[in-house]
What we know:
Blueprint: H1 2-24, H2 45-50, H3 71-77, H4 90-104, H5 114-143, E1 151-152, H6 153-163, H7 168-176, H8 185-201, E2 209-210, H9 212-219, H10 225-239, E3 247-248, H11 249-253, H12 265-284, E4 291-292, H13 294-301, H14 306-320, H15 330-335, H16 337-341, H17 352-355
Antiparallel strand pairs: 1-2, 3-4
Helix pairs in contact: 3-5, 5-9, 5-14, 6-7, 6-8, 8-9, 10-13
Domain EF-hand: 92-127, 131-166, 232-262, 272-307
InterPro entries: CAB45_EFh, EF-hand-dom_pair, EF_Hand_1_Ca_BS, EF_hand_dom
Signal peptide: 1-29
Amino acid sequence: MAVCRDLWSRKLLALSLLFYFLLTLDVHARPANMSSSKDKSPATKDENEILPPDHLNGLKMEMDGHLNKDFHQEVFLGKDMEEFEEDSEPRRNRKKLIEIFAKVDVNKDRSVSAKEMQHWIVEKTKEHFKEAMEENKNSFRAVDPDGDGYVTWDEYKVKFLASKGFNETEVTDKIKKKEELKLDEETQEVLESLKDRWFQADNPPADQRLDEEEFLSFLHPEHSKGMLRYMVKEIVRDLDQDRDWKLTLSEFISLPVGTVENQQGQDIDDDWVKERKKEFEEVIDSDRDGIVTMNELEEYMDPMNEHNALNEAKQMIAVADENQNHRLELEEILRYSEYFTGSKLMDYARNVHEEF
């Protein structure tokens, strides 16, 4: 009997250890071919408020040099983007898209010209700008607790480190005493990058502090010509392999380190090269000399460039212009709803004329 009890105890212990092991497994672990040694933890609410966003609505490129895959939807839908979700009701989405078409069609001839689409794109981009300005008011209040209308670099650094889990009182005290802050390598790198960006946003005469407008350009470089130029310079620096501050096609289509995370990488490579080659040759390289200069990339990135808006309008029309009349009819825009809204509409032609 004692032997049985002993065997049962051992089995129970083994089962308990197995259960504990399963509980501690990371169910979201990446496959073997990882792009980094550890996953970054998601940004906290505080970090989201005071850190420059990785993605900027209405800009053709991301901060890291990737093409903005949602750009068409952003400049077509503006602040209405969230209404077109993949799981939302198709009939409601169709009705909303018909309403948008009617607004774009200013002269009410039941078709959309390139000029009409250009004006619409500019208006939707302004909506993103206005949204960013409203968000900036909250962000600025978060880093300007004394409400004096200015934020110094040290004040911002305290808030940033507090958002990363550091004790705000201790950090403030160490900065005042000019004592060394013991930071991990990753946090130190982010801080140094933010510091460079901070002083770029400090308009002359530089006083090492930002007001609300300067803080907006710190978070959203698209709101300032100088900061947009700085953003372009950072992108070129990351892609430029021979350090001549120009981009060749081969440099522009090179897959960044860390992009591929699994063995489906070849498909990603092919898509990356095809998409970026087309954008480089047909859009960014405006003089078609095979080289993209800083000025060309800056013009391409400028969200308020009306010439860019017209080119984008023509490109968007060309995608869906099945009858090749250089205009968009309602049926065409509904048929290509996924391109314009990110949401595929079923039975797009059903009662189109009645609803319109």
